[in-house]
Amino acid sequence: MNITLRQLEIFAAIATLGHVTRAAQTVAMTQSAASMALAELEQQLDMPLFDRVGRQLLLNEGGRQLLPKALDVLDHVREIEATAGNSALSFDLHLGASLTIGSHLMPSLLGELARRYPASRVSLSLKNTEHVVADLLAYRIDLGFVEGPVQDERVQAYFWQHDRLSVFVHPEHPLAGKNATIDEMRQFSWILREKGSGTREVVDRALANASLTARVAFELEQPDAIRQSVRAGLGVGCLPLLELRDAFAAGWLAPVETPFLNLERKFQIILQSNKRISPGIRAILSQCGVEVA
């Protein structure tokens, strides 16, 4: 058996992207060469690694078992190349973040990483927490930055920062700037994030613990759409303070005090439990104040 690094590289790219053409572009190969490399790898292993569904390739059981091993080999090779070249630490990592974190906290983190490790490349995708976890488990990202707990034994989570949500309304709303009661909150419709988002999970849990059933008028994926809907007087919203501080300061939205709701939460960094912590991942975790053995 003579498995090459190029074969592992194209296999990992196809596993991540699901298409030979797009994978070939990422590793600077032609589509025919990438297809041939995959076919040779499957022939050497004497088993298919993907299920073919139309033009899409989906990892089968054998492919899922091989993928973490292939990624580990490729990580080691990059470390050897960096050491042999006596160069500064460089890495190529894919990150995923929930919308609030990605919009408000990741720009400064990415900027500092670029300053400290100029030879490295970091890409970022923004989705809700549920989709970030799915991308992590499918090896489409190396690290995830999410809101709230992740209940999955395949995921290792590290605490990053504290966060808090706030209920808010139009500045001329009868509850603007006041302490609300549970009975008062029952009178109004709510505009909330979609199911699967970390923000929605916190809101739903807080409402349930307070025995408050919310009449949800709209479920929206984008925080700005929620802010603008509340500004238009369509209902009561609940978002992270990070998303609301500018609007509160400008006076076009107003907070509502709800001491009966526990809207505290934690931002966490997640990675696969069985994933080797490479120097690049360790550098990012360290930059976030997370030290691992």
By CATH, the superfamily of the largest domain comes out as: Periplasmic binding protein-like II
CATH topology of the largest domain: D-Maltodextrin-Binding Protein, domain 2
Structural class: alpha/beta
The CATH architecture category of the largest domain equals 3-Layer(aba) Sandwich
DSSP strand count: 11
Report the biggest beta sheet as strand number plus sense, adding barrel if it closes.
9 strands, mixed
Low-confidence stretches: none
Discrete helix count: 12
H-E string: HHHEEHEHHEHEEHEHEHEHEEH
What is the subunit organization of this protein? single chain
Termini separation (Å)? 35 Å
Report the radius of gyration as a whole number of Å: 23 Å
Summarize the entry for a quick read.
With 293 residues, this protein is of the alpha/beta class. It contains twelve helices and eleven strands.
Describe the structure.
The protein is of the alpha/beta class and 293 residues long. The chain has twelve helices and eleven strands. The chain has three domains: 80 residues, Orthogonal Bundle (Arc Repressor Mutant, subunit A); 91 residues, 3-Layer(aba) Sandwich (D-Maltodextrin-Binding Protein, domain 2); 104 residues, Periplasmic binding protein-like II (D-Maltodextrin-Binding Protein, domain 2, 3-Layer(aba) Sandwich). Helix 9 links the parallel strand 7 and strand 8.
Notable traits:
293 residues; alpha/beta; Arc Repressor Mutant, subunit A; D-Maltodextrin-Binding Protein, domain 2; 3 domains; nine-stranded mixed β-sheet; elongated
